[in-house]
Amino acid sequence: PVDPANSAKSEAVQLFVERARAFQPMFQINDQTSSAIVQACRLVDGIPLAVELAAARVRVLSPMQIADLLQESMHHFPTPTRTAVSRQQTLQASIDWSYTLLSETEQTLFRRLAVFAGGFILEDVQSVCSMGIAPAEQRDLNCQVDSLPTLVDPIPEENMLDLLANLVDKSLVSALPGELASYRLLFPIKLYAQAKLDAAGEDEAIRNRHLCHYLELAQQANLLLRSPEQAIWWVRAEQELDNFHRALDWSLHSGALEIGLQLAGELGEFWYRQGHSAEGLEWFNRLLAEEYPEDTIQARALLHAGRLFRETGDYQQAEAYCQKSLELCQELDYQEGVAEALSIMGVVTHYGGNRERSLTLLENSLSLYEMLGDDWNLAATRLHYADVNNRLGNYAIAERDFSKSLQYFLEIGDKWGTGYAYGGLADVARFQGDYEKALPLFQEALKMGDMLDTPFLMEAVSFIYAEYGEPQVAAQLWGFAEAFRENTHSIIPPAYIKDYAEPLQDIRAACGQADFKAAWEAGRTLTWEQAVT
To answer: FRET partner for 32 with CA separation of 20 to 30 A, picked from 58, 75, 279, 301?
Structure first.
């Protein structure tokens, strides 16, 4: 018999025992079980994932049974060696062994989970992997798949949680830590599940359902991004990025182009506000290269693409896309789109330096939003209108409109709008030299944690530190802002560069070249939290 003391020294055996105790807290290694555990570990060549898959079976099998079943399932594979090929074969055999011990319904769910990229939550699984959805029902999701295949072997939604828990218990699905319970398949397991999905002929049906589910999720998120729940949805959308990418990629691959364009349009606000402009443009460029009906879906996509071009500094493309969207919205009598196009074009011309034209475009947008009764967009556009007036020296108008927007956004709990309004009021005070009033307002703005506005806020605060005789702190904040812009593919608008030139030159002179460079480089290494502090 194998000496339990010696076998316990093996890392593979220790892992087996550790995982076994996670399922059976009283599990012990002794003379009777040690030989079987060592044999099981040798059969799977000590590969950690394969050891974990084997150990997960102690809830229903003894170590001796586990070893015997592994021996039987691997008899057609070569004797394990340390070569990469044989280890891959051994892992494949271990996963295959675990799969064959699943119930038929567990196998069905397991292979369908291959459709998810990255992580997923229970609600995703229930929507994508359960009962078939008829095309007529799909219209409720505003998902325009002409013929959505219904899945064979339907799984009732109410069974999903238990089935998913079973797969976690058997180590085929990994549970991820976090406030919202989420799951994923490890890469080798995912590859195996995908092969089973392909063999079952369900890949197309599952991927169509995945695409429609993530369109619905993006639509829900878009509504809640303008509510007190927006912070939750920012986190959720970031977590789902891989799945959104997979859905968009499938829309291009499968020819479901209009659904992909609609999904991109729904994600436009997220890409814009969270600093993913370059990523969003990549998808819009791929999708808009195709032909589409002249409808509101295309109009919205052009508009969001225009705004992302604006954020990356391509103002010519930004205006061209917004102009095309504006003309299409006017043809369709889509007044919400007309108002938004005017608003975005107003900011494009403001950033480009034509502030008088910007005021006209924004005033037209405000009038239309007021007529439509769209309070959120009215308040958001008023922020831009106030910013232009502030830069033109119309401080009373700017303070009035920033204050109106602040009141609205505070009432509805919108942190993005609240932060922008506080930052705007701070800038009005700064432009008039009232730094004691400006700094607390900048602090309130930064508390909102808005990624889009962060570099603007830091650049403005740096000028106040320079006025207070701390040019090295000012240089550090500029270094941070520069690195932040690089990471989010955001540039300083040309009109702002002119505003910044003289104060930045004063900071450089006050520091001296060497100290300025050192402070600037130190600022580039700061985290967001450190810079705010």
So the answer is: 75
